[in-house]
Amino acid sequence: MDVNNGEERYAFIQDFVVNHVDGIRLRDDDQGRTCPRCGKVTH
């Protein structure tokens, strides 16, 4: 068991967030805020 993998784990999580979470930005339009990936509208 490797207990010194904190930096490797942090790099993996940071990469995941940049590629999957950080890139999602809601667009403001006349219906509300729309997700560009799935088209779901929030008010």
Q: What does the model show?
A:
A three-stranded antiparallel sheet has the order 1-2-3, with no helix packed on it. The protein contains one helix and three strands, in the order αβββ. 37% of the residues lie in helices and 19% in strands. The chain has 43 residues and is of the alpha+beta class.
How many helices? 1
Give the C-alpha Rg: 17 Å
Report the structural category: alpha+beta
Mean pLDDT: 76
Q: List segments where confidence is low: pLDDT < 50 over at least 5 consecutive residues.
A: none
Silhouette: rod-shaped
Number of strands: 3
Strand content: 15-25%
Main beta sheet strand tally, sense and closure: 3 strands, antiparallel
Order of helices and strands: HEEE
Strand order of the largest sheet: 1-2-3
Helix content range: 25-40%
Distance between the termini: 48 Å
